[in-house]
């Protein structure tokens, strides 16, 4: 069987940096404190379970711990979380992706000089919740063009985007808002890692007989990759988290298989799966 791996797949820069930081912290000599992550470090049950075995526990709230080291994941967190962690005497290991940190800094700076912050993003997404926490949780959060219709005149707007939003939506919303203000500062804060992964998945899916998408079914970027593959070949797209879930019997009938992976799929899992497929 011929197996082709998508040109861009797996860990993005931000997630890779987060994982490396956690592993190097874990391997520090003389580390005598317990490590915790605020929420799962990445959307990958396999990796989270591995981390748990190594003593890194995911907690939902700082109230769940009284001492130790708290790891802030790549999505980032509201400003108040840093303050609370310091008050509790916790050591902070901050793995907020630099692209997300940039958004947090923009909204804080513009909020402080009187701009209304508008975030194009999903209100429930941890990254957006985190960004909103840098402007006193006062941002207007919108994720469709219809929602801009409900916005009346605003004196000064600072517009940013969740890193994974489609650029088309950001442009459309930004154009609409231009007519509702005298002063708009627009920051295209979309990260190209997501778009590149989606484009290379789309291109590969058109070339092969079937696609294997590696990632967690809770990860929105992985689900998006599966959706793209389904739109090209509805009967030949398979989502798996690890090699144990490979639908070998179903895959046997294809000659060329494409493999892609979401942003939280580690390279070692991708490599294992590609090797097994090649053996078929
Ligand atoms: S998708 Fe982009 S912004 Fe998000 S963690 Fe990865 S590199 Fe950072």
CATH topology of the largest domain: Cobalt-precorrin-4 Transmethylase, domain 1
The end-to-end distance, rounded to whole angstroms, is 6 Å
- The percent range for helix content is 40-55%
Largest sheet: 4 strands, parallel
Number of helices: 11
Reading off the top of the CATH hierarchy, the class of the largest domain is best stated as: Alpha Beta
Class by helix and strand content? alpha/beta
Bound molecules: iron/sulfur cluster
For the record, the count of structural domains works out to 3
How are the strands of the biggest sheet laid out side by side? 1-12-10-11
Shape: flat
Mean pLDDT: 93
**CATH homologous superfamily caption of the largest domain:** 4-hydroxy-3-methylbut-2-enyl diphosphate reductase, catalytic domain
Binding site for [4Fe-4S] cluster: 12, 97, 191
Pfam families: LYTB (PF02401)
Keywords: 4Fe-4S, Iron, Iron-sulfur, Isoprene biosynthesis, Metal-binding, Oxidoreductase
Protein name: 4-hydroxy-3-methylbut-2-enyl diphosphate reductase
Give the helices and strands, then pairings.
Blueprint: E1 2-5, H1 13-26, E2 35-38, H2 45-53, E3 56-59, E4 69-72, H3 79-87, E5 91-94, H4 98-112, E6 116-120, H5 126-132, E7 140-142, H6 145-149, E8 156-161, H7 167-178, E9 183-186, H8 192-207, E10 210-214, H9 220-232, E11 237-240, H10 248-251, E12 256-261, H11 267-279
Parallel strand pairs: 1-12, 2-3, 2-4, 4-5, 6-7, 6-8, 8-9, 10-11, 10-12
Helix pairs in contact: 4-5, 8-9
Bound molecules: iron/sulfur cluster.
Iron/sulfur cluster binds next to helix 1, helix 4 and helix 8.
């Amino acid at each position: 069987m011929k197996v082709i791996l998508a040109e861009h797949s797996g860990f993005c820069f931000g997630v890779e940096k987060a994982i490396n930081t956690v592993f190097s912290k874990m391997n520090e000599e003389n580390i005598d404190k317990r490590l915790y992550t605020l929420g799962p470090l990445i959307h990958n049950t396999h990796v989270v379970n591995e981390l748990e075995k190594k003593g890194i526990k995911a907690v939902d709230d700082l109230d769940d711990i009284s001492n130790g080291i708290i790891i802030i994941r790549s999505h980032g967190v509201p400003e108040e979380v840093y303050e609370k962690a310091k008050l509790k005497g916790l050591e902070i290991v901050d793995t907020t992706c630099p692209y997300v940190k940039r958004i947090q800094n923009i909204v804080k700076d513009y909020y402080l000089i009187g701009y209304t912050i508008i975030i194009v993003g999903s209100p429930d997404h941890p990254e957006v919740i985190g960004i909103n926490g840098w402007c006193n949780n006062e941002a207007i959060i919108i994720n469709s063009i219809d929602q801009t219709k409900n916005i009346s005149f605003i004196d000064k707007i600072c517009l940013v985007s969740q890193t994974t939003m489609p650029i088309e939506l950001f442009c459309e919303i930004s154009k609409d808002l231009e007519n509702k203000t005298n002063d708009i500062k627009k920051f295209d804060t979309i990260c190209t890692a997501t778009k590149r992964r989606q484009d290379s998945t789309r291109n590969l899916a058109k070339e092969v007989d079937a696609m294997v998408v590696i990632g967690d079914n809770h990860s929105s970027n992985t689900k998006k990759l599966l959706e793209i593959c389904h739109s090209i070949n509805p009967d030949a797209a398979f989502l798996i988290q690890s090699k144990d879930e490979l639908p070998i019997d179903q895959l046997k009938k294809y000659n060329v298989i494409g493999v892609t992976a979401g942003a939280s799929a580690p390279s070692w899992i991708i490599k294992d799966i590609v090797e097994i497929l090649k053996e078929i």
